Amino acid sequence: MSGEDAPAQQQNAVDQKQETKPAEEPKAEPPKTESPPAAATADAAATTEKVPEEETFTYRALVLTGYGGYDKVKLQVKKGKPALKAGEVLVRVKACGLNFADLMARQGLYDRLPSPPVTPGMECSGVVEAVGEEVTDRKVGDKVMVLNRFGLWQEVAVVPASHTFLIPEGMSFEEAAALPVNYITAYMMLFDFGNLRPNQSVLIHAAAGGVGIAATQLCKTVKDVTVFGTASASKHETITEGGVTHPIDYRTKDYVEEVRKISPKGMDIILDPLGGSDTHKAYNLLKPMGKLITYGAANMLAGQKKNLLAVAKNWYHQFSIHTLSLIQGNKSVCGFHLGYLDGEMELITEAMNTILDLYKAGKVKPRIDSTWHLEQVGDAMRKMQERNNIGKMILTTEPMPEEEKKEEPKKEEKKDDKKKDDKKKDDKKKDDAKKEEKKDDKKKEEPKKEEPKKEEEKKEEAKKEEK
Amino acid sequence: MSGEDAPAQQQNAVDQKQETKPAEEPKAEPPKTESPPAAATADAAATTEKVPEEETFTYRALVLTGYGGYDKVKLQVKKGKPALKAGEVLVRVKACGLNFADLMARQGLYDRLPSPPVTPGMECSGVVEAVGEEVTDRKVGDKVMVLNRFGLWQEVAVVPASHTFLIPEGMSFEEAAALPVNYITAYMMLFDFGNLRPNQSVLIHAAAGGVGIAATQLCKTVKDVTVFGTASASKHETITEGGVTHPIDYRTKDYVEEVRKISPKGMDIILDPLGGSDTHKAYNLLKPMGKLITYGAANMLAGQKKNLLAVAKNWYHQFSIHTLSLIQGNKSVCGFHLGYLDGEMELITEAMNTILDLYKAGKVKPRIDSTWHLEQVGDAMRKMQERNNIGKMILTTEPMPEEEKKEEPKKEEKKDDKKKDDKKKDDKKKDDAKKEEKKDDKKKEEPKKEEPKKEEEKKEEAKKEEK
Fold this sequence. Notes:
Two copies of one chain form a homodimer. By secondary structure, chain A is an alpha/beta fold. Among the domains of chain A are: about 60-180, Alpha-Beta Complex (Quinone Oxidoreductase, Chain A, domain 1), CATH 3.90.180; about 180-365, Rossmann fold (3-Layer(aba) Sandwich), CATH 3.40.50.720. The first copy, chain A, is about 35% helix and about 20% strand. In chain A, strands 3, 4, 5, 6, 7, 15 and 16 form a seven-stranded mixed beta sheet that branches. In chain A, helix 6 links the parallel strand 8 (about 200-205) and strand 9 (about 225-230). In chain A, helix 1 runs parallel beside helix 16, helix 5 (about 180-195) packs across helix 6 (about 210-220) and helix 5 (about 180-195) packs across helix 12 (about 345-360). Strand 14 of chain A pairs antiparallel with strand 14 (about 330-335) of chain B.
């Protein structure tokens, strides 16, 4: 998918060598995990002979062991094949998506994740390996993408069949893992709350992020929509090619002024993942009949651990609105978070079906920033939190072979070489981002020095997990 | 339109005798006001010969002389033909609509009306009698409906041509005066903010009011929409025939409980004209992805004069919402008021065109509760404020002939007899409402005792107006 990121990731991989070697969970890479993607079926677990499957079945899982920094998410080995209840399917996970809520969750700022230890992860793609009773619309071997409240950052996941969606022809596992959260979020915000129509204007914050790119693509499916997108300057060329009409560098310019220069009356729709004072600005930037859709509090995230000052500031500036102001302004304020919508699979499925139709028609396509091994989840989270990604951050469950750890970033990227042709235009634009990332890599070394000690903890925890 | 209301109005007309006789503005009923509706052209003003038109041109106008009770709106005579600026048209007004905002305005609770003395009135219908320069799409003789921030409760109104809409074939002046505010409000709330779609559920408060009836009809244009409507029991049969699926008597039952019994998950859309604590209830009654659209503060209106306790209570209970609650609930809160949308004629025209198409297709049709002479505006406002109407309250500019004041309610109603056939079903249902109205009439007599004195003030003010 994103072979163009290789140099940056290579650097990551080099960093990784020191930290991940001790983490080579001895029981974590059994033959199962190497079973061929499409043929992965229930009997893959039977490769070890004569021992009951329940005992020999092991799989790697990322586990949030406590709230805090990037190192709190650890790779562990779990043992025993999970039991399936009626209506459930067991999915052999191929790729997982990272979301902003996962970053919030790690800091203890997301209440939809149960207390640690717990496996995070709201979306993944994979192959159905077993189906429970009463499951009629999924069968072993189906390639699916999965949406769940949590628990998908592992090699094997058990979920209700209704939380799975068939992957259409030609969609890679990475794309499939990149699609659910970002596209459903963008779709429901723009077309349910936003009621986006031709000739309207939309302000998209973090336009180079996963939701930002999905929202931009979805805006382009409606005639003559003008998209204003904020992103750091190095990402402007990419987001412009993706459909942003007016990119705005929020780091060097006042985005409110920039928007007013071009559209004095303001915006029809504003997607606000920031919270705090940016929500106030958004509200004031709305046209009459305008819709502000707030879907996060990214401003709360400052640094890798919970920053009480940032949290307090966000609370202090939290937007609160009186109905009289709404009436006099003819405005709408909406809140959206897919994580709180898990009881509404009917709505979600409806949105997903439309999105998949758009995908098949070539109108939307997830943009992968980079793909990381499970061992690299900390670095992946860091890149995302520091806003150095353009598009989706993906984790692959494919094990990191020894030689890759030494030389290459990831196998994933080779597989995706054939897709490069579509992406050539994007390649150059990433250069700037890569430079930023290199600077970033230097920063990364600090926390990593602690890693080796932590790896011992990890092993102990893994043992506990095995009971 | 509403010949079926005759008995009730007759009673009103009887009441009226005592109070309106002294109000027979001597200069208020010149031949002009009796000019035939369709033929009313600029030269109608030329019936008085040899004296310059500017001096002889007089017209009756309702004027809010100060904030307070029903008697604060007085009928005055204005002199001098208003000048037309470029882009404006002069409309000979035939009928005017009453709106809740007019009631608020009389009490000093609506900031879109300039300070008294001022002519209220946000909508009317009539005939174009003169066009200003640069007006290309309206001509003398055009039958139009008009939407304006204020100033339409008079026999002659000057408005921007862009604020007029051609009346379609077959629509009466009363219907045309009943349509703009209620239908545009209902339309924009349901289809812009509400994004109403098939199979959804909508709670409509005051379902027998002007907006309520318009909203119900518009809901029925979408497949399988379930409408919950609150109204007093006597109105249930009428609103049920109009399209309300589940009528709820809010006077004897807890509407929240009633809604939950039928739809435990709550509502997709709630239209809230009440404000205060009802807005809180509405918010809690929303489904995930639900939209609360608040468009008034009817709860503030208690009695005919400003009730400070009611206002304070409304403010105290005023709904205020934090974004975090919106996000966790996946909810939308919108505010709407057409009075604050007067800069957005493009949006309004778009909505109006769709509504007129629906009218032509027979899908929507304003329901007139009753038509009143300008002299009767106080009674009309009272009926509306006391929630005794089913549908729209209309004022007609046709003068009240002596014999009518003694015997008949109004000429208007005779003209509409031919339309009765469409309405036969509605006739019976109004009986209950009429009974209520009779009770009401007794109450009316109290304030009317003051009237005769006030009429003298009125004459004096009329003289001042003439300068």
